[in-house]
Amino acid sequence: MASLDSFKSKSTLTVGGKTYTYYSIAEAEKNGLKGVSKLPGSMKVVLENLLRFEDNRTVKKEDILAIAEWLVSRTSEYEIQYRPARVLMQDFTGVPAVVDLAAMRDATAKLGANPQKINPLVPVDLVIDHSVMVDNFGTPLAFEQNVELEYERNGERYEFLRWGQSAFDNFRVVPPGTGICHQVNLEYLAQTVWTKDEDGETVAYPDTLVGTDSHTTMVNGMAVLGWGVGGIEAEAAMLGQPITMLIPEVVGFKLTGKINEGITATDLVLTVTEMLRKKGVVGKFVEFYGPGLDYLSLEDQATIANMAPEYGATCGYFPVDADTLKFLSTTGRDADRVALVEAYSKAQGMFRTTDTPDPVFTSTLELDLSTVVPSLSGPKRPQDRVALKDVTPSFAKALPDLAAGRGDVAPGAKFPVKGEDFEVGDGSVVIAAITSCTNTSNPSVLVAAGLVARKARALGLNSKPWVKTSLAPGSQVVTDYLTAAGLQADLDAIGFNLVGYGCTTCIGNSGPLPQPISDTINENKLVAASVLSGNRNFEGRVNPDVRANYLASPPLVVAYALLGTLNVDITTEPLGTGSNGQPVYLKDIWPSNHEIAEIVRQHVNADMFRKRYSDVFKGDEHWQGIAVEGSETYGWNGSSTYVQNPPYFEDLTMEPKPVTDVVSARVLALFLDSITTDHISPAGSFKSGTPAGKYLMERQVAPKDFNSYGARRGNHEVMMRGTFANIRIKNMMLDGVEGGYTLGPDGSQMPIYDAAMAYQAQNTPLVIFAGKEYGTGSSRDWAAKGTNLLGVKAVIAQSFERIHRSNLVGMGVIPLQFKDGESWQTLGLDGTETIDIAGVETIEPRAMVMVKITRADGSVLNVETRCRIDTANELDYFKNGGILHYVLRSLVAA
């Protein structure tokens, strides 16, 4: 689509003898956009997007002027329409997205239209990386055995994705066993500058994307602006809908100084996460600048960018610099592309050098890199950083809360494990996992882990026998350079064998603990621990047997596997006794920065990346052996327990039914602060006694074949039953009860799903009350889909996390926000109330909405709340019954 180009920005750039069209920020500044060269780099990307898509309909001249006006106000409530270049998916969120597309094709056919109208209009890449589980570990056969189990469990899902790969245009699938989507994106898919042939021209523009995983932000480390969205919002984007967003605030994070000897990128990112959470950056862009960037590798930058969801920001952006070009070359990108990135970013004022003036930011904060110390984060939240020297006393302080309600088991008590010659107790490290996109994209910390293993092995140390050890790299290239350096053999020797390429422990796919260890933990209600190099450690996420979870760098993961406990100070006490009978300390096996850098220099090269990614979509013999039946619409299998046609589009008509007020609703749950999407959305494993387990057993699925909730996201029946079923969630309607329970219509305690179905049978709508930061965490569309299918009409909270609020609206659920200082606690609610929400039929974005609360004794409270349907586009989605209904009607009408 040609831009109206009100600011005469359309220009040409010649690189290597080829001419590109681009939309010049410098020219736009000359022609009316005063001062925009001072914008942060991330905002320049947004500005370029508006310049390129100006059409006087979705992007108007005044929208572009609003970006220049931001330089004065540095904040804005102005709404713009933004179009990312592409969409990235992982399979947990990708499968339900493709299920929705298939369902939309069915609905389109029923409306008498061509199903081919439902097709991605921008490039979509789906990387199958979230389904591998750590069933087998600590042996050379672990990888092959886990792959076999993965295909056995997920055959129906993979057949469905193979159908989608052939049925939809503009849709590519990276098969299982390749790597984590964010690392594949960083190492292969992302280009920093994107190109497209259009109307006889080759247009160059910034590489931008949205992804169905919140850690899409990792690619911000190579100056690619991208962030996580829910699957429903991603589907709309890939179907040609612009993303409606408010012009963001941009917080500048200045880095000075240089990291000291022995400090890792993980220590740095945990420090950054703590600082930004304290500042408060939810819904804001964060951009890093300053002279300290000269001392960070691009992989270090990607490590920091990855954890933007943990510090609450929309993105964590780094500008293009010389290291970006070096990284593109090292990872095998085409030389012409690297030359274009350099020329384009310099032409647009997006290339950082030591002399680059500081941009204009909404606000700033600063960190001297030399002040960073070795750190972990835990035991429940990524932002709860603990200096390594303080881990033992910090755990002791947290233990009473973690062990609450278990009775008279004395803290620190140990219990024998049946059939073994060891004991476990509170603080025993039972999982040590090198896992997750945060760190496995960074050669420096993986090589450091290998060197710790090498030195420990040479001194005769080994992992403690009660520790489940695993290595799940983010790409096959990691195995190549660890093997080339001889470090994989050292890791293998102490139990860190390859278990798979993908997101494992961090997503809850840690697999079961050995049964005797699990039994000892559960029989004695122990607070066992995990140490993982991931980005998430929320309650109930890593493993149902583990209550304390700590994020750490890969070399510290190895060190804690050797030590086996949190109850001993790893900085001063021995890790164990060496083969010579002498104690071995952490300092004895910790590698120097020079040792690490030398191995990275020798063994990480472009040929590895070119070889691994030369045929990345082909897959192994398992993938190639999946039969594909090609057709426009999917042949749903009614007996499948993995993939089912969802009910969202039943009885769909071209004209939406009017929305109505919420009348005589009952309270499904009362929640406190920081309810995460892990608490809401089904994730991890589940047992036979749960509603989801009962559903599967009724269909002759044995518990050993349950797989995970994530793997079954394509079946709404399983996912409805798992919504709010987290084993650690606490509904304050119940006194001291942990798990997904509530009070049903008859006043008795029952699973939330069962209560919701009982209320639906009575045609009674439901509401949920919550505290601050409701919906923190991964961009899980099922947190909103499940809420909708349970019959919840509104969520009333003190504040919402960005993605989940958007997803609730996208599923037709009203988010309402208390006024400052008000909460369900200050109102004295106990869950027995009846709720009426008036004015829904005439609701407007961010308007005040009156909520009538009638207590059980008949007394009435009228509470004014803020409607968090934030934009006009979101209001259209809500009035259509959801974003997918809106998009489907729009495409059919076109």
UniProtKB/TrEMBL annotation:
Keywords: 4Fe-4S, Iron, Iron-sulfur, Lyase, Metal-binding, RNA-binding, Tricarboxylic acid cycle. Pathway: Carbohydrate metabolism; tricarboxylic acid cycle; isocitrate from oxaloacetate: step 2/2; Organic acid metabolism; propanoate degradation. Its EC number is 4.2.1.3. It comes from the Bacteria. GO terms for biological process: tricarboxylic acid cycle. CDD domains: AcnA_IRP, AcnA_IRP_Swivel. Its cofactor is [4Fe-4S] cluster. The keyword Transferase does not apply. Pfam families: Aconitase, Aconitase_C. It catalyses: citrate = D-threo-isocitrate; (2S,3R)-3-hydroxybutane-1,2,3-tricarboxylate = 2-methyl-cis-aconitate + H2O. Monomer. This is Aconitate hydratase. It comes from Devosia soli. The lineage of its organism: Bacteria, Pseudomonadati, Pseudomonadota, Alphaproteobacteria, Hyphomicrobiales.
